[in-house]
Write a structure and sequence with these properties.
Blueprint lengths: L6 H11 L4 E5 L8 E6 L5 E7 L1 H4 L2 H17 L12
Antiparallel strand pairs: 1-2, 2-3
Length: 88
């Protein structure tokens, strides 16, 4: 059985998933455990936003699926991302 991911682990994974861009994260003050992730380009312009429920970022499989889908959207918009997999 795999241990649930901690928030810091999930954030590191998300940051690597969107390289060479930066992933900025914050937790809304409502305390529901959800994370907001914003992918920004080199000029600090937002190029994508994700709302990630706690149940998703704590589960490596669900997090991988969400990040892959977000990467696919960015690729379709013409952004070039570094190669990435959860195994890295």
């Amino acid at each position: 059985m795999n241990a649930p991911l901690r928030v810091n682990e999930a954030l590191l994974i998300a940051n690597h998933a969107f390289e060479p861009f930066q992933c900025v994260a914050w937790a809304p003050q409502d305390g529901n455990g959800e994370l907001s992730l914003t992918v920004v380009d080199r000029t600090c312009n937002s190029i994508d936003r994700l709302q990630v429920p706690r149940s998703t970022y704590c589960d490596a499989g669900q997090l991988a699926h969400l990040l892959k889908a977000a990467r696919d959207v960015l690729s379709q918009k013409g952004y070039s991302l570094n190669a990435w997999s959860m195994a890295q």
